[in-house]
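We close this part of the discussion by returning to an individual protein. The sequence in question and its structure tokens are set out directly beneath this paragraph:
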Amino acid sequence: MFHQITYLLFKLNLIQPSESTINFWTHYGHVEKLEYAVTNGNYKTRKLAAEGLEVVGKASSIPVLLKCIDDKVQNVSIAALNTLESIGAENELIKTVLKKRFNWANEVRKKQAKFEASKGRKYNIYRWERASKKSFDRVKEQLKKPIR
């Protein structure tokens, strides 16, 4: 009864379901509630609901999960990818999408790690060592000479 009330309040955008509520929906196979949570919840709710859909494993939730893989939050996107990988293992189209998306997620992680690693580094490139500075000085000296 409590979880039904939670779902109604969630549909009215008054509260977000807790982890225990999503676990209850997962345990009893409430796929429609989990799909609604994946599309309309906050980022924690979307991630938990995507993981719950992985446990339930219904093929009817594949279109919702395909929309969810382009989520702004990377954890939600990865949870949806993992769910799609476990549900749609025999479909070739889903395999191709998952492969490309996982490669993209890995590239994003590598770029982010590279940025974080070089965040505090200072580069020692001095202005007077650049070739453009030398040529600029040469032109400047020539301009100082009187014109004949």
Remarks:
- The radius of gyration is 27 Å.
- The chain has a mean pLDDT of 84.
- The chain has one domain: 2-144.
- The first helix runs from residue 2 to 11.
